[in-house]
Amino acid sequence: MSGKTINPILKTVLEIGPVVVFFAAYLLTRERMFTIGGTEYEGFILVTAGFIPLMILSTVLLWKLTGKLSKMQIVTLLLIVVFGGLSVWLNDDRFFKMKPTLIYLLFAGALGIGLLRGESYLQDVMEGALPISHEGWMVLTRRLAGFFFALALLNEAIWRTQSTDTWVYFKTFGLTAAVFLFFMTQGGVLKRYSTEAEGGDSKDG
């Protein structure tokens, strides 16, 4: 199904809105305990329980409005449902905290498999949005695969050694900033392998 154009502000709200709501709700409930059906739950668990249907709703709305979902969005939603659900069901926040690790490992692994086949799955996902050669896509894909693997290790280190507060701040702001900075620092690749310029250098940066 071909994609439809929607208001970019609405698209951004649907993509990051649930994360913002999760963060705000966590700040309001982090020091409280809730008793439901004779079982005590931390605020983090209840916020996670609310985050799951919110993510499902926002993803379905994105699909309805744009006519498509990326594989990344689908995989992310599935892991949120599975590991968020396990955290709520077992009353154990560790499962939800593991989710970013698994997401980044899956992405790194998928990109790595493509590289072994001489392909850039990143190029397929982004539908050739950047005006760079195939070799440029391969360089960018190698870097992104390594970056995702590093993020998976970092998430493991944070949630296993730091407080829930620290992990929530890291998940909400740290990971988002890291991804943004990664792409901001890839200007050299975009320039070197640009298909819009003549005589681009083909060295691997």
Automatic annotation (TrEMBL):
Topology in membrane: Multi-pass membrane protein
Gene Ontology CC terms: plasma membrane
Keyword Nuclease: no
Chief place where the protein resides: membrane
Transmembrane feature ranges: 12-29, 41-62, 74-90, 102-122, 143-161, 167-184
Tree of life domain: Bacteria
Pfam family, one: IspA
Keywords, sorted A to Z: Cell inner membrane, Cell membrane, Membrane, Transmembrane, Transmembrane helix
Keyword Cell membrane set for record: yes
Subcellular location: Cell inner membrane
Family: Belongs to the YciB family.
Function: Plays a role in cell envelope biogenesis, maintenance of cell envelope integrity and membrane homeostasis.
Name of the featured protein: Inner membrane-spanning protein YciB
Lineage, uppermost ranks: Bacteria, Pseudomonadati, Pseudomonadota, Alphaproteobacteria, Rhodobacterales
Gene: yciB
